[in-house]
Task: inverse folding
């Protein structure tokens, strides 16, 4: 998760640098009837194609980082609830989350505990569905 933040930060800095390079500064001098000159400076930002592409890449990276963070939070919630349940052996169950879909891998002592683990996962906020790959120990 720390690597995702680092990548997002690097992309953000690159996008900001690209935008600064794309800035265009213009100075206009106008002669007035009294013989004095008036100078005005205008700065406009006209992002180039490269800047636009960098902004799009940064947005995409930030969205992916945000999605990964949400998935990690869901995984943590499900794992915590499995560990807290006295019947479900939470240490024997691996929890993975991708786009809100939780995958449970591992073993349980009996079929009822498999059902309970799936029920716990399904009842967790943010979980869209559960892919049950748990097996019952023989």
Result:
């Amino acid at each position: 998760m720390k690597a995702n933040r680092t990548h997002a930060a690097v992309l953000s800095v690159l996008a900001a640098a690209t935008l600064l390079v794309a800035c265009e500064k213009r100075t206009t001098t106008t002669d007035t009837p009294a013989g004095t000159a008036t100078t005005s400076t205008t700065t406009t930002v006209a992002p180039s194609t490269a800047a636009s592409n960098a902004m799009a890449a940064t947005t995409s990276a930030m969205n992916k980082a945000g999605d990964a963070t949400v998935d990690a939070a869901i995984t943590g919630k499900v794992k915590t609830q499995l560990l807290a349940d006295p019947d479900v052996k939470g240490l024997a169950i691996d929890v993975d989350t991708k786009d809100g879909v939780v995958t449970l891998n591992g073993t349980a002592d009996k079929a009822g505990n498999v059902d309970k683990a799936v029920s716990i996962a399904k009842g967790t906020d943010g979980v869209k569905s559960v892919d049950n790959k748990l097996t019952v120990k023989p």
About this structure: The radius of gyration is 27 Å.
